[in-house]
Amino acid sequence: MGGNMSGLTDAQKKFYEDALEQTRTEIQDLEGQIQVELGKVKEKIAELQNAQKAARQMYDAACQRLGIPNDLEGDESGS
C-alpha cells in the first residue's frame, strides 16, 4: 500500500482528499454568506434603533406638553 500511514488505499485517499477540498470550499462559501447576512441584520438593527430613538423623542415631547413625567426615561433597553 505504498507505506500509507493511514492504512487507506490510493482510491480511498483520493476520495478523502477530494472531500477535503470540496468541504473547505463549502465552508468558506458559507462563511461568506454568514458575513453578508450579519451585515444585513446589523443594518436592520441600526434602522430600528434610529426609529426607536425618534419615537422616544416624540414621546418625551408629548410628556412635556402634557406636563407629566416621562416614564420611559432612563429605560434605554440594551443600548
Account of the 3D structure:
This protein is an all-alpha fold. It is 72% helix and 0% strand. The chain has one helix at residues 10-66. The protein starts with 9 loop residues before the first helix and ends in a 13-residue tail after the last helix. The model has no long low-confidence stretch (mean pLDDT 91).
Strand content: under 5%
String of helices and strands: H
Ranges where pLDDT stays below 50 over 5 or more residues in a row are: none
- The separation of the N and C termini measures 63 Å
Computed Rg: 28 Å
What is the 3D shape?
A: rod-shaped
Q: Structural class of the helices, strands and pairings?
A: mainly alpha
Helical residue percent band: over 70%
Secondary structure tally, helices: 1
Specify the biggest β-sheet. Answer: none
Overall pLDDT: 91
Count all strands and give the number.
0
In short:
The protein has 79 residues and is an all-alpha fold.
Helix-strand blueprint:
Layout: H1 10-66
Which key terms come to mind for this protein?
single chain; about 80 residues; mainly alpha; 1 helix; about 0% strand; rod-shaped
